[in-house]
Amino acid sequence: MSLDYKLPRDRIAQYPPEVRGASKLLIVGRKSGVIAEGFFNESLSKCLRRGDTLIFNNSKVVKARLILKSYKRNKSFDVLVVDPFSKGAWRGLVRGLDKLKEGEVFLVGESTVTFLGRDNEFGIFESSLPISQILDNYGHTPIPPYIRKGVDGKIDSDRYQTVYASKEGSIAAPTAGLHFSETSFQILKDLEVQCLFLTLHIGPSSLASYLKVVPEWFEIDEDVIRAIALSKKESRRVLAVGTSTIRALETYGSQGKTKGETDLIINEGYQFKIVDGFFTNFHLPKSTHLDIVIAFLGKELTKISYEYALNHGFKFYSYGDCMFCADD
Question: Which of 51, 68, 243, 321 is the most exposed place for a label (fewest CB within 10 A)?
Fold first, then answer.
């Protein structure tokens, strides 16, 4: 069972810190239970050891949010496109889905979008142009609804993206990676930490805790697989940046897959096969991402850690502060 907690609205970060790496970092030891805090870049040397292997998710966020204007009604609908590269009909999470009428036509710039019906929580649409083309021309950065009610600004096109993002496909940011800057990578280099990259395209489950885990596409290159094997052989830690990276690594560890879709669910009682520690943000109550933290730290230590963060001014969710979890 996941962890529920009450979060004051003013603790949900509405903007990123002025400078990447200036966020706070909470350090939690799984075995010792020791909790320490500091600022992100300044605290990296306290978290990491020479020889650690640190793995990042290089997925890039698509401009997946669209505003649909009704052709006949004086009304607009906000849609998060779940299938941004579909060649045919595509799915979307819609604010006000029950108010859409089957066959209704909407305008997006000079393109049209038709509502075909619904599939559980999702609306099904088809468009006059490929949806990827429409998103390129008219899409918005898909910041979550708890940040400025989902209305993006100029800052988000840069800051809701990691500095190392290279493979387009996510509809939500791998938020633990947002803290890492060029300065961070110089610190990692000085610490002789090996930095590697995989890809997992993040789907809608990260934005809406009421959704079940939706399969997500991932790929781990052979050089990363070899590096993991060598790290394990030499008893060096394999660390992940973000829960999306954990899902990819643990899919490989538990199923042997290096590419394809993963529907892996990690919750309390799961035995980690690859990951020895990780960076992560503070997650929504009862979310699958929080379940991963609980699976690693245990429910009691996770609860203590979140209570500490609540009592010491930490900011939560996508633009909020960071947490590092490891054995000690």
Answer: 51
> Could you tell me how many residues make up the chain?
328
Three-point CA angle 158, 201, 251, nearest 5°: 140
Whether the CB-CB separation of 47 and 40 falls below 8 Å is answered with no
pLDDT tens digits, one per residue of 208-267: 655 666 789 999 999 999 999 999 999 999 999 999 999 999 999 999 999 999 999 999
- Of 200, 230, 183, 248, nearest in space to 42 by CA: 183
pTM: 0.94
Q: What is the pLDDT of residues 258-309, one digit of tens each?
A: 999 999 999 999 999 999 999 999 999 988 899 999 999 999 999 999 999 9
> What fold does the segment set 9-61+164-326 form as a domain?
QueA-like (3.40.1780)
Left, alpha or beta for 155 (phi > 0: left; psi -120 to 50: alpha)? alpha
Q: For the chain, what is the radius of gyration of the CA atoms? A: 20
Of 277, 269, 271, 268, the residue nearest 242 (C-alpha): 277
Q: Tokens standing for 173?
A: 């940011």
State whether the Cα torsion 106-87-139-160 is positive or negative.
positive
Decide if 9-61+164-326 and 65-139 have a common fold: no
Q: pLDDT tens digits, residue range 62-84?
A: 999 999 998 788 889 999 999 99
Report domain extents, the chain. 9-61+164-326, 65-139
CATH of domain 65-139: 2.40.10.240
8's CB contacts (< 8 A; 6+ apart) are none
